[in-house]
Specification:
By secondary structure, the chain is mainly β. The protein has one domain: Jelly Rolls. 12% of the residues lie in helices and 39% in strands. It has helices spanning 32-38, 83-96, 169-172, and strands spanning 11-13, 18-23, 45-48, 51-54, 58-63, 69-71, 74-76, 102-108, 115-118, 131-137, 140-146, 152-157, 161-167, 173-177, 187-193. It has a seven-stranded antiparallel β-sheet with strand order 1-2-13-10-15-8-5. Strands 9-14-11-12 form a four-stranded antiparallel β-sheet. The structure holds 2-oxoglutaric acid and manganese (II) ion (MN). 2-oxoglutaric acid binds next to strand 8, strand 14 and strand 15.
């Protein structure tokens, strides 16, 4: 649909079977307005050392029925795909030849909103998850460090870009979305995932 197939640049492969591939200008048109209007945002709280804090960003989780996903103790039961999310999923599956049954969406309103170091290594995603991370809006800095502490690098994620993390990347590296003191506009990031063994969770 909106994919710019000519612009396949900036491919980087890390260690054997740990893939980090950055594709700028992957989409021809920013979908930030449509996404911001359609998505039902929420701001979760997390408990750190007994203290309850607001998560420093807003989130939402959409997916097929039963594709529930738990991270940082937060249970994400999927909402029904919106028209824009469905269209993005379809075009990504078509371009990458892979299926995605869920998407975690993050909304960074300003430079104070961020995400700490983590790996997307939850059991529900299987051993070698393919994560397709689409960014719309302000450019923000994505930080990567290897678990053994030997490698560190950063990649600016621009409007309309796609970042693919695949193979053993989540085993060897952790990633974060840095805070910034610069004045930055809204950014929306979508990480498309394939949740294995979808189950309807009993409440
Ligand atoms: O906003 C980003 O680019 C990072 C998102 C991310 O790492 C996640 O949703 O797990
Ligand atoms: Mn992540």
């Amino acid at each position: 649909m909106l994919i710019n197939r000519k612009e396949v640049l900036g491919i980087s492969l890390l260690r054997e079977d740990a893939h980090f591939i950055y594709l700028p200008n992957f989409y021809v048109k920013s979908m930030i307005r449509e996404l911001d209007d359609e998505i039902a945002w929420r701001q979760d709280t997390i408990k750190i050392f007994g203290k309850t804090n607001l998560l420093p960003r807003q989130t939402a989780y959409y997916g097929d029925k039963g594709a529930s996903y738990v991270y940082s103790g937060i249970v994400n039961d999927p909402q029904v795909w919106t028209p824009t999310l469905s269209a993005l999923r379809l075009s990504l599956s078509d371009a990458l030849g892979a299926d995605f049954n869920a998407v975690l969406v993050n909304r960074y309103a300003d430079g104070s909103h961020h995400m700490g170091y983590h790996a997307d290594d939850e059991a529900e995603l299987g051993l070698s998850p393919l994560i397709a991370s689409l960014s719309f809006g302000a450019t923000r800095r994505f930080l990567v460090k290897s678990c053994d502490g030997r490698e560190r690098f950063a990649q600016d994620l621009e409007d309309c870009s796609l970042l693919i993390m695949a193979g053993s990347f989540q085993h060897h590296y952790r990633h974060a979305l840095a805070k910034t003191k610069r004045q930055v506009d809204l950014r929306i990031n979508l990480t498309f995932r394939q949740v294995l063994n979808p189950k309807v969770r009993k409440i």
